[in-house]
Amino acid sequence: QVQLVESGGGLVQPGGSLRLSCTVSGMIFGIYMAWYRQAPGEQRELVARITTGSTTNYSDSVKGRFTISRDNVKGAVYLQMDSLKPEDTAVYYCNNYRSPWSWGQGTQVTVSS
């Protein structure tokens, strides 16, 4: 069973940056991957996705501020988050975009002064 482990979250001031990492226990070569987030009381939403050929797509709310990338050799997916805003506060998750695996525990991102 594939396991997902997200890390890199924390408390950051508005305007700051964080880099999230997602480690997948299996291979991600050939897998379309994505980052999601879930704020308190809200549904989980898609933030960014990256194809096997590293074509990327972003939600309008993070476009121009977040960058998704992947390392197929390491089985990892990353999310560089810049110019963070309080509304980016959420638990962030990664997963297989087309055929989601069991969700990991996520990593908490809190943007506050």
Structure description:
0% of the residues lie in helices and 47% in strands. The chain is mostly beta strands and 113 residues long. It has a six-stranded mixed β-sheet with strand order 2-10-9-4-5-6, with no helix packed on it. Strands 1-3-8-7 form a four-stranded antiparallel β-sheet, with no helix packed on it. The chain is globular. The N and C termini lie far apart (40 Å). The model has no long low-confidence stretch (mean pLDDT 96).
Brief descriptors of the model:
mainly beta, four-stranded antiparallel sheet, six-stranded mixed sheet, 113 residues
Give a quick rundown of the structure.
With 113 residues, the protein is mostly beta strands. Helices cover 0% and strands 47% of the residues. It has strands at 4-7, 10-12, 18-24, 33-38, 45-50, 56-58, 66-71, 76-81, 90-96, 107-111.
Biggest sheet, strands in spatial order? Answer: 2-10-9-4-5-6
Low-confidence runs of at least 5 consecutive residues: none
Rg, Å, rounded? 13 Å
In helices, the fraction of residues equals: under 10%
Give the amount of beta strand, in percent: over 45%
What summary fits the major beta sheet? 6 strands, mixed
Number of strands: 10
Q: Write down the secondary-structure element order.
A: EEEEEEEEEE
